[in-house]
């Protein structure tokens, strides 16, 4: 787990999170460009309430160190409302802090339709 006094370096960091119900999520951070340009946070697997704290901590750390952060949802098997709410919150944090948070996804239409139906105005870009 990344603590608030840690920094994201040029190496890719990967965490695999397993919950008691065997819902596995993977979070990885990868700087892009000249490393000072920004960082990409990749989220994969089953994204549920069990993973919200880790996703929040890593993305907030990235936003504190980089002006531009890409949050990429790929190979997502399931996503629950708590993660959708977190994405909305992170987008609001980035906007208020003057950061750029780009949410990119490879989600099926059925998942994006449910996100739209939640009423939260999340700016998702299709990869």
UniProtKB/TrEMBL annotation:
Organism domain of life: Bacteria
Pfam families: STAS_2 (PF13466)
InterPro entries, alphabetized: MlaB-like_STAS, STAS_dom_sf
Coiled coil residues, start to end: none
Record-annotated MlaB-like STAS domain positions: 43-120
Name of the molecule in the record: STAS domain-containing protein
């Amino acid at each position: 787990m990344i603590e608030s006094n840690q920094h994201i370096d040029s190496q890719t960091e990967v965490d695999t999170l397993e919950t008691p119900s065997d819902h596995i999520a993977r979070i990885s951070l990868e700087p892009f460009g000249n490393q000072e340009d920004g960082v990409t946070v990749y989220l994969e697997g089953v994204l549920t309430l069990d993973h919200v704290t880790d996703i929040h901590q890593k993305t907030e750390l990235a936003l504190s160190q980089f002006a531009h952060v890409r949050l990429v949802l790929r190979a997502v098997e399931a996503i629950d409302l708590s993660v959708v709410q977190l994405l909305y919150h992170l987008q609001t944090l980035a906007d208020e802090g003057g950061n750029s948070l780009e949410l990119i996804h490879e989600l099926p239409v059925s998942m994006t339709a449910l996100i739209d139906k939640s009423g939260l105005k999340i700016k998702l870009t299709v990869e």
